């Protein structure tokens, strides 16, 4: 799908050749003398068009417009959020097999973030999963023109949004693939494929190397599976080697049966999405390949299956993590924190500025926050604020949760340094407290995306979240860096 940003007045939009022309009409819309303006003004006056976000008035071949199909689409107050909501409401029209060329035109100057939101919503609405369908129709939509009064003003957010489309769709694609089509080996190959882009490097370690590193917790989870584990190490270098990287760690459980502490059968298929954190790391790197920001990023993905087997780890087993801490595995279904704790310990060797892990970690987080906001845990207030703001800007929001030390009480063990589960109460917090033991003093954040990485029910499928949040956060680091640079340069000259 190819996006193009164009300077288009409504009269120019009327002459634009396409299969579907969508006109975004905000509250307080001021019509001009052109055909589309009159149509919209007329329809508003007659009460057939409403400017509430998502209200749609489909038209057929109206006079003076070259597109056969036209839709007037209310976009409320015109904020990024309202525009997203509007475009998603028109999703069925945009997704129609006959629409190859779409034009989406803002009838009034867009608010900050609205162009990016429109681009991303078109992708969100039109993505189709085809990888394991024998007769699936691929996405018909090939070209999308986004028309605004002043293209230059929206250029930067447009570029971010198109990169985010590529990254989010990459994440959705890998998270959607069933576990037999997204094994740790195949996820490793997907990461390797990203290294064909300039600036990205990838190493994939197998079981022997992981054993040599002493990752006893990760190895314990992988023991029950015939599929060999992979430890994936991605690097993006956009700044000098002296700049400390942000390390992203993504939970890559390609299928979570629960292991010997086996899960009930209902909805167990959804545990193919348990590598949503890993998929989001792949998606971020896909977006970085397009954006090439002046920062350094490392991506770490411990990938394996969690299966019951004669060799599987058993409740009560004690293992030694890479950090040296011993762990009593009281519940083999709390496996995410076991693979993550070794990856977090490994992260220290990059001397990171920040470590962020992303994981479909706990059902308790779904109970706490539902599907709207990801759970955010952070050891550093500044980092928490930046991630909250990035989530708001990207329309990929999160919500801060507490990390008081008292929450770690329940993780005490009579047989090891720490147990891998506490009681049921505050389950997403005790999971975060477990992870925190393995981070050290680096500013750290943990995103529990168990409620946000995929949707269940009829719309079952991966969302690609939180690629938007993470990329906005990373671009914010770049912007802060370049804001400081001129001052430093001036100081040197003086
Ligand atoms: N992958 C699951 C978390 C999960 C469950 C995500 C349901 C989304 C929906 C994780 O590995 C897990 O099983 N967590 C357990 C932890 C418990 C044993 C302490 C859970 O949440 O039940
Ligand atoms: Mn589990
Ligand atoms: Zn899991």
Please tell me about this protein's structure.
- The protein has 494 residues and is of the alpha/beta class.
- It folds into two domains: 2-148, Leucine Aminopeptidase, subunit E, domain 1, CATH 3.40.220.10; 171-480, Aminopeptidase (3-Layer(aba) Sandwich).
- The protein is built from 15 helices and 20 strands.
- The strands form four sheets. Strands 7, 8, 9, 10, 11, 14, 15, 16 and 18 form a nine-stranded mixed β-sheet that branches.
- Helix 13 (381-393) links the parallel strand 15 and strand 16.
- Helix 3 (80-89) runs parallel beside helix 5, helix 6 (151-176) packs antiparallel against helix 10 (276-291) and helix 9 (216-222) runs antiparallel to helix 11 (336-347).
- The radius of gyration is 24 Å and the shape is elongated.
- The model is unreliable at 487-494 (pLDDT under 50).
- Manganese (II) ion is lined by residues 256, 258, 306, 333, 335.
Can I get a quick summary?
By secondary structure, the chain is an alpha/beta fold.
Any descriptors?
single chain, 494 residues, alpha/beta, Leucine Aminopeptidase, subunit E, domain 1, Aminopeptidase, 2 domains, nine-stranded mixed β-sheet, six-stranded mixed β-sheet, 15 helices, 20 strands, 21% strand, disordered C terminus, binds ligand BES, binds manganese (II) ion, binds zinc ion
């Amino acid at each position: 799908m190819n996006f193009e940003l164009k300077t288009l007045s409504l009269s120019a939009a009327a002459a634009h050749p396409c299969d579907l022309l969508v006109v975004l009409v905000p509250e307080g819309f001021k019509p001009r003398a052109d055909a589309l303006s009159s149509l919209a003004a007329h329809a508003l006056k007659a009460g057939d068009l409403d400017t509430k976000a998502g209200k749609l008035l489909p038209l057929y071949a109206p006079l003076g417009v070259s597109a056969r199909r036209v839709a007037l689409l209310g976009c409320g107050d015109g904020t990024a959020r309202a525009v997203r909501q509007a475009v998603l409401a028109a999703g069925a029209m945009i997704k129609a097999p006959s629409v190859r060329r779409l034009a989406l035109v803002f009838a009034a100057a867009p608010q900050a973030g609205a162009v990016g939101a429109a681009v991303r919503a078109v992708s969100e609405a039109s993505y189709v999963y085809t990888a394991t369908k024998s007769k699936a129709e691929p996405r018909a939509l090939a070209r999308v023109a986004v028309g605004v009064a002043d293209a230059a003003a929206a250029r930067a957010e447009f570029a971010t949004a198109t990169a985010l489309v590529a990254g989010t769709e990459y994440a959705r694609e890998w998270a959607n693939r069933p576990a037999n089509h997204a094994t740790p080996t195949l996820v490793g190959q997907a990461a390797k494929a990203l290294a064909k882009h300039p600036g990205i490097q990838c190493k994939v370690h197998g079981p022997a190397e992981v054993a040599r590193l002493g990752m006893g917790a990760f190895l314990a989870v992988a023991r029950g599976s015939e599929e060999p584990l992979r430890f994936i190490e991605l690097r993006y270098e956009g700044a000098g080697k002296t700049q400390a990287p942000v390390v992203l760690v993504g939970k890559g459980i390609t299928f979570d049966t629960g292991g010997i502490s086996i899960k009930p059968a209902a909805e167990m298929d959804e545990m193919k999405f348990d590598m949503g954190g890993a998929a989001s790391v792949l998606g971020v790197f896909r977006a970085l390949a397009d954006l090439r920001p002046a920062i350094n990023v490392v991506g770490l993905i411990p990938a394996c299956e969690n299966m019951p087997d004669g060799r599987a780890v058993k409740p009560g087993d004690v293992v030694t993590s890479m950090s040296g801490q011993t762990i009593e595995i009281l519940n083999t279904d709390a496996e995410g924190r076991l693979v993550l704790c070794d990856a977090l310990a490994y992260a220290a060797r990059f001397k990171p500025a920040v470590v962020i892990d992303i994981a479909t970690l706990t059902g308790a987080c779904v109970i706490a926050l539902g599907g709207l906001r990801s759970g955010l845990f952070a050891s550093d207030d500044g980092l928490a604020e930046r991630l909250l703001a990035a989530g708001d800007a990207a329309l990929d929001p999160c919500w801060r949760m507490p990390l008081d030390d008292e929450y770690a009480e329940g993780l005490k063990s009579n047989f090891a340094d720490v147990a891998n589960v506490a009681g049921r109460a505050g389950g997403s917090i005790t999971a975060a407290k477990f992870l925190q033991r393995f981070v050290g003093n680096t500013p750290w954040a943990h995103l529990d995306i168990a409620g946000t990485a995929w949707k269940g029910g009829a719309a079952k499928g991966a969302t690609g979240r939180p690629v938007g949040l993470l990329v906005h956060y990373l671009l914010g680091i770049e912007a802060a860096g370049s804001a400081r640079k001129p001052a430093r340069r001036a100081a040197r000259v003086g």
